[in-house]
Amino acid sequence: LTYKLTIMTTTQNSQDLDNVFEALANKHRREIIYLLSLSLEPYSIHKLAFLRNLSLPAIHKHIVILEKGGMVTRNKIGQTNFITLNRESLSGLQDWLNRINTVGKAMKLP
Protein backbone atom coordinates (compact mmCIF):
# COMPACT_ATOMS: atom_id res chain seq x y z
CA LEU A 1 0.00 0.00 0.00
CA THR A 2 1.11 3.50 -0.73
CA TYR A 3 -0.02 6.38 1.41
CA LYS A 4 -0.09 9.91 0.16
CA LEU A 5 0.16 12.34 3.05
CA THR A 6 -0.32 16.04 2.64
CA ILE A 7 0.02 18.37 5.58
CA MET A 8 -1.52 21.68 4.69
CA THR A 9 0.40 24.73 5.78
CA THR A 10 0.27 28.25 4.53
CA THR A 11 3.44 29.82 3.19
CA GLN A 12 3.55 32.10 6.24
CA ASN A 13 3.12 29.22 8.70
CA SER A 14 5.76 27.22 6.86
CA GLN A 15 8.23 30.12 7.02
CA ASP A 16 7.47 30.68 10.70
CA LEU A 17 8.10 27.00 11.42
CA ASP A 18 11.33 27.11 9.39
CA ASN A 19 12.48 30.05 11.52
CA VAL A 20 11.64 28.17 14.74
CA PHE A 21 13.57 25.09 13.59
CA GLU A 22 16.52 27.28 12.60
CA ALA A 23 16.44 28.92 16.01
CA LEU A 24 16.36 25.57 17.81
CA ALA A 25 19.04 23.98 15.61
CA ASN A 26 21.86 25.27 17.83
CA LYS A 27 22.53 24.00 21.36
CA HIS A 28 23.37 27.47 22.69
CA ARG A 29 20.03 28.81 21.48
CA ARG A 30 18.19 25.84 23.00
CA GLU A 31 19.99 26.52 26.28
CA ILE A 32 19.01 30.20 26.12
CA ILE A 33 15.37 29.21 25.55
CA TYR A 34 15.59 26.80 28.47
CA LEU A 35 17.06 29.46 30.79
CA LEU A 36 14.37 31.94 29.78
CA SER A 37 11.67 29.31 30.32
CA LEU A 38 12.71 28.97 33.97
CA SER A 39 12.11 32.62 34.74
CA LEU A 40 9.18 34.99 34.69
CA GLU A 41 11.63 37.89 34.59
CA PRO A 42 13.59 38.92 31.51
CA TYR A 43 17.34 38.36 31.37
CA SER A 44 19.79 41.00 30.25
CA ILE A 45 21.98 40.03 27.32
CA HIS A 46 24.99 40.45 29.63
CA LYS A 47 23.53 37.98 32.14
CA LEU A 48 22.74 35.45 29.39
CA ALA A 49 26.28 35.80 28.03
CA PHE A 50 27.71 35.25 31.52
CA LEU A 51 25.47 32.25 32.29
CA ARG A 52 26.28 30.58 28.95
CA ASN A 53 29.97 31.59 29.01
CA LEU A 54 29.62 33.28 25.61
CA SER A 55 31.02 36.56 24.33
CA LEU A 56 28.63 39.46 23.84
CA PRO A 57 28.96 39.27 20.02
CA ALA A 58 28.18 35.53 20.13
CA ILE A 59 25.14 35.92 22.41
CA HIS A 60 23.90 38.80 20.26
CA LYS A 61 24.11 36.61 17.14
CA HIS A 62 22.05 33.91 18.86
CA ILE A 63 19.48 36.41 20.14
CA VAL A 64 18.99 37.83 16.61
CA ILE A 65 18.21 34.33 15.29
CA LEU A 66 15.85 33.64 18.20
CA GLU A 67 14.11 36.95 17.46
CA LYS A 68 13.77 36.00 13.79
CA GLY A 69 12.10 32.78 14.94
CA GLY A 70 9.74 34.83 17.10
CA MET A 71 10.93 32.95 20.15
CA VAL A 72 12.20 35.92 22.14
CA THR A 73 11.52 39.61 22.38
CA ARG A 74 14.01 42.33 23.19
CA ASN A 75 13.19 45.32 25.34
CA LYS A 76 15.79 48.06 25.70
CA ILE A 77 15.81 49.97 28.98
CA GLY A 78 18.50 52.63 29.00
CA GLN A 79 21.55 50.95 27.52
CA THR A 80 20.57 47.44 28.61
CA ASN A 81 18.77 44.96 26.38
CA PHE A 82 16.44 42.56 28.20
CA ILE A 83 15.33 39.31 26.60
CA THR A 84 12.01 37.59 27.29
CA LEU A 85 10.78 34.22 26.07
CA ASN A 86 7.77 34.42 23.78
CA ARG A 87 6.04 31.31 25.12
CA GLU A 88 3.35 31.49 22.43
CA SER A 89 5.99 30.98 19.75
CA LEU A 90 6.28 27.36 20.80
CA SER A 91 2.59 26.72 20.06
CA GLY A 92 3.16 26.54 16.28
CA LEU A 93 5.87 23.95 16.81
CA GLN A 94 3.69 22.04 19.26
CA ASP A 95 0.76 22.09 16.80
CA TRP A 96 2.98 20.72 14.02
CA LEU A 97 4.33 17.95 16.27
CA ASN A 98 0.79 17.07 17.36
CA ARG A 99 -0.31 16.77 13.71
CA ILE A 100 2.63 14.49 12.92
CA ASN A 101 1.89 12.38 15.99
CA THR A 102 -1.83 12.19 15.18
CA VAL A 103 -1.14 11.04 11.62
CA GLY A 104 1.30 8.41 12.87
CA LYS A 105 -1.22 7.10 15.39
CA ALA A 106 -3.99 7.05 12.77
CA MET A 107 -1.74 5.00 10.48
CA LYS A 108 -0.69 2.86 13.48
CA LEU A 109 2.97 3.67 12.95
CA PRO A 110 5.41 2.83 15.75
Question: Which structural traits does this protein have?
Answer:
elongated; disordered N terminus; single chain; alpha+beta; 110 residues; 13% strand
Task: Summarize it.
Helix content is about 60%, strand content about 15%. With about 110 residues, the chain is α+β, with helices and mostly antiparallel strands.
Q: If you had to describe this structure to a student in words, what would you say it looks like?
A:
This protein is an alpha+beta fold and 110 residues long. It is built from five helices and three strands, in the order ααβααββα. It has helices at residues 11-24, 27-37, 45-52, 56-68, 89-106, and strands spanning 43-44, 72-77, 80-85. The chain has a three-stranded antiparallel β-sheet. β2 (72-77) and β3 form a beta hairpin. α1 (11-24) packs antiparallel against α4, α1 (11-24) crosses α5 and α3 crosses α4. The two termini are 17 Å apart. The model is unreliable at 1-12 (pLDDT under 50).
Q: What is the average per-residue confidence, as pLDDT, rounded to a whole number?
A: 85
Q: Nearest-angstrom radius of gyration?
A: 17 Å
Number of strands: 3
Secondary structure class reads: alpha+beta
Number of helices: 5
| Proportion in β-strands | 5-15%
Largest sheet: 3 strands, antiparallel
Distance separating the two termini: 17 Å
- Determine the fraction of residues in helical runs and give it as a percent range: 55-70%
Strand order of the largest sheet: 1-3-2
Topology summary:
Elements: H1 11-24, H2 27-37, E1 43-44, H3 45-52, H4 56-68, E2 72-77, E3 80-85, H5 89-106
Antiparallel strand pairs: 1-3, 2-3
